[in-house]
Amino acid sequence: MVFGRSDKRHRPDVEPVALKILVAGGFGVGKTTLVGAVSEIKPLRTEEALSEAGRPVDDISGVESKHTTTVAMDFGRITLREDLVLYLFGTPGQDRFWFLWDELAQGALGAVVLADTRRLEDCFGAIDYFERRGIPFTVAVNCFEGADFYPPDTIRDALDLDPSTPVVLCDARDRQTVKEVLIAVVEHAMATTPEEEAAPAVG
Amino acid sequence: MTSDPEGWFDDAAGPVVRPYAMTRGRTRSSSEEKLDLIALVVAEDRSEGEDDGLEDAVFPHTLSPEHVDIVELCRAEPMSVAEIAAELDLPVGVVRVLLGDLLDAELVRVSRPVPPAQLPDERILREVINGLRAL
């Protein structure tokens, strides 16, 4: 016999809203570190099995090797309010997992492209991806110790970015600077009216 | 389409096979489009019993231990699909299938995510900025 209980644990009456921001950039540039600096949970790792991850089966181009069967995605969570949660997803760094980005990018508020001035070319791919899909992104330069300092405008020129794209300097280990990066992403997303840019993602 | 005769032997096939045994071989669920990585899953109230062992009475016998694990996880607070996968150490695809079963059985519900290709309204973005500042 099951007795009904009316004093259930209280949940927010409002439907919780979940938002996501992507963190992209080359391999080893500090994506997981950045997520960990602000996440209230230790960055979690989830795996997607590649055999079915091509679910929207439209883009498997560029997957030269099918030998790897799973890919890990790191993510973190920031609860801003009981009913407002922000998730950060570190995108897979290796190029051959591009097609997984399409699912991650769907419905994303915006993106951080994390760059290392010593290997600036590593983030070209990510910038290209977000530009083509009209996803507002902010370039965050992870200031590694020992790397030469360049002013943001120089970096913007070097990356051939749209003048409106924010470029901020940060230390991926430092919570405060990472917060600034995320704020820049959201502010930029607000300033970007998605009107005609929101072309359907092709291929 | 020809299948690649070189593929899916030994290690290459390994990680895929076992997790999908839990879904009895299914790789898709009917509710897939609802189950975005950040869709929040909440256990329905009617599956909520006393904390001590009412599960057998409440959960249909067709459910696997993994199904039960998911419901347990989503009881205390809403959990995203990605978190459930990480927490249970299962591929996201498997979790989606299991969640589809739970949705069909009305043991969980899924909050509607912000529709893709549409930004949340400005008010929410402002709240996000304020929330981040206050961290």
Task: Describe the protein's architecture and organization.
The complex is a heterodimer of chains A (203) and B (135). Chain A is α/β, with parallel strands linked by helices and 203 residues long. Chain A has a single domain, classed as P-loop containing nucleotide triphosphate hydrolases (Rossmann fold). Chain A is 27% helix and 25% strand. In chain A, strands 2-3-4-1-5-6-7 form a seven-stranded mixed beta sheet, with helices on both faces. In chain A, helix 1 (31-38) packs across helix 6 (175-191). With 135 residues, chain B is mostly helical. Chain B has one domain (17-134): Arc Repressor Mutant, subunit A (Orthogonal Bundle), CATH 1.10.10.10. Chain B has six helices and three strands. Chain B has helices at residues 10-21, 55-58, 65-76, 81-88, 92-104, 122-134; strands spanning 40-43, 79-80, 108-110. Chain B has a three-stranded antiparallel beta sheet. In chain B, helix 3 packs across helix 5 and helix 4 packs across helix 5. The radius of gyration of chain B is 18 Å and the shape is elongated. The chains are: A alpha/beta (203), B mainly alpha (135). At the A-B interface, strand 1, strand 2, helix 2, strand 3 and strand 4 of A face helix 1, helix 4, helix 5 and helix 6 of B. Chain B: InterPro entries: DUF742, WH-like_DNA-bd_sf, WH_DNA-bd_sf. Chain B: This is DUF742 domain-containing protein. Chain B: It comes from Streptomyces thermolineatus.
- Identify low-pLDDT runs of chain B: 47-57
Q: Reading side by side through the largest sheet of chain B, how are the strands ordered?
A: 2-1-3
Q: Sheet with the most strands of chain A?
A: 7 strands, mixed
Q: What are the secondary-structure elements of chain B, in order, as H or E? A: HEHHEHHEH
CATH class of chain B: Mainly Alpha
How would you classify the quaternary structure? Answer: heterodimer
CATH topology of chain A: Rossmann fold
Unreliable stretches of chain A, pLDDT < 50, 5 or more residues?
A: 1-10, 51-69, 195-203
- Strand % of chain B is 5-15%
Tally of domains of chain A:
1
Radius of gyration of chain B: 18 Å
Structural class of chain B: mainly alpha
Determine the fraction of residues in helical runs of chain A and give it as a percent range. 25-40%
Mean pLDDT across the residues of chain B is 77
Distance between the termini of chain B: 52 Å
* Strand arrangement in the largest pleated sheet of chain A: 2-3-4-1-5-6-7
**CATH third-tier fold name of chain B:** Arc Repressor Mutant, subunit A
Protein name (chain B): DUF742 domain-containing protein
InterPro entries (chain B): DUF742, WH-like_DNA-bd_sf, WH_DNA-bd_sf
